[in-house]
Design brief:
The protein has 262 residues and is α/β, with parallel strands linked by helices. It has 2 domains: 2-33, no CATH class; 48-261, Vaccinia Virus protein VP39 (Rossmann fold, 3-Layer(aba) Sandwich), CATH 3.40.50. 36% of the residues lie in helices and 15% in strands. A 7-stranded mixed β-sheet has the order 5-4-3-6-7-9-8, with helices on both faces. The protein has a two-stranded antiparallel sheet with strand order 1-2. It is globular, with a radius of gyration of 20 Å. It starts with a helix and ends with a strand. 31% of the residues are buried. The model is unreliable at 1-24 (pLDDT under 50).
Length: 262
């Protein structure tokens, strides 16, 4: 079995290297190696007791970021660059990117660029896509990764000049994935939803991150935030719905946040 798998990627040269003792050669991964399996997305069907268990663990998992012992559950490193994410949400992003093959990913909330680099890395493996990532704070720009698929844009995600630039970049793109992870105040997220919906084609996704805060189920002291913004947006825009099949791993920082356009 090992020889079959190794030979698939190494070809004749790799097989010969194993017998000759010479340096091994291997093909570079390309999108041509991409498989055809697509994971089955299904909305979790939980009992009330199971739901409470999931929410209790989600609250514990999120709050441990502030633990005095420094158990940083959501402080992740991707290729040496920092980000705040749940690994299971990143896995869902990978599946969406491979399945939907977006031409452009619009990310609001760059921080140190770790998540943008992760998205770019998946696009590299898929052989398709680019990222434009927006942040109002340029403080971390010196440490952000430089990657040919990533473009950085400094400014407010709702400012006219920023939206105009995004519109320019998106003009020739057919499939666009939007990820909103900036200012989490309800009124700001709602404004972003109203602006960035225009970039999402039918069947595409607009993801609102951190809908778990303000007691859904964690950080109840935050006040109205992304969850409440999603409520208001879905009440006024019936072209989008919360695709809860993206929550099949149960632990997520974005409950009801994976919005799909009909």
């Amino acid at each position: 079995m090992f020889q079959r798998i190794f030979g698939l990627f190494g070809g004749k040269g790799a097989a010969e290297a194993g017998t000759s003792g010479g340096a091994r050669s291997a093909q570079t991964w390309t999108s041509a190696h991409q498989g055809t399996f697509r994971a089955s997305f299904a909305e979790p069907n939980l009992t009330e007791a199971e739901r409470q268990l999931v929410e209790s663990f989600s609250d514990l998992y999120y709050r441990k970021i502030d633990n005095f012992r420094g158990l940083h559950t959501i402080v992740l490193s991707w290729m040496g660059y920092e980000m705040f994410k749940c690994p299971l949400d990143l896995w869902v992003y990978q599946e969406i990117i491979v399945r939907e093959r977006p031409d452009l990913i619009i990310e609001v909330g760059t921080y140190k660029g770790g998540s943008a680099l992760y998205l770019a890395s998946v696009c590299d493996l898929a052989g398709h896509g680019e990222i434009i990532t927006i942040d109002i704070d340029p403080t971390h720009d010196p440490v952000r990764p430089r990657h040919p698929r990533i473009s950085y844009l400094t400014g407010s995600s709702t400012a006219d000049d920023v939206v105009a630039k995004v519109t320019e970049v998106a003009a020739d793109k057919q499939k666009i994935l939007v990820i909103l992870d900036g200012d989490h105040r309800c009124e700001h997220v709602l404004q972003e939803l109203r602006i960035y919906r225009r970039f999402v084609a039918p069947g595409g996704y607009m993801v609102v991150e951190d809908t778990n805060i303000n007691g859904h189920p964690t950080y109840p002291e935050f006040g109205p935030g992304p969850w409440e913004a999603v409520d208001l947006f879905l009440a006024e825009d019936n072209e989008f719905y919360a695709d809860r099949s993206c929550e099949r791993f149960l632990l997520t920082m974005n409950p009801r946040g994976f919005l799909r356009r009909r």
